[in-house]
Amino acid sequence: MLPIKYHFATRVNSFRTGPDRPDAAVAIRAIAEIDGITALELNFPQHFAPGRPAELLDVAGDAGLEVTALNLRFDGADFDAGAFTHPLAENREKAIETAFEAVDFAAGHAIDHVILWMGPDGFDYPFQVDYRQVW
Fold first, then answer.
1. Is the peptide bond before 45 cis (omega within 30 degrees of 0)?
2. What sign for the dihedral angle of Cα 10, 12, 13, 14?
3. Cis peptide preceding 87, ω within 30 of 0
4. Has residue 53 got a pLDDT over 70?
């Protein structure tokens, strides 16, 4: 029987609080100093700089941390009224495109999980509400 490999991970934003709010690379390096933490999750697209999408993956790898998931985040004015449930079709389409980009990025970088957080749509997890009733 093969041994089970456990990861103890954290989210980068958990280390980006307070008045100095270090950038994600600084936070990743700080996370790597914590005994027992072997992995982390990054927010997509929040933590990925345009033109340098894999930069934080390199920072994590250099720090000895595996990126085990991407957490989808729908930030900004385009998603103030929801992502997949936004009243404007073009904003809903942008949310769908962002989700596909996250999945493609994860698949291209050996990241096994993409986590869809439905907070902008008024609930935390898929199937937490009766969609027919709320939509």
1. yes
2. positive
3. no
4. yes
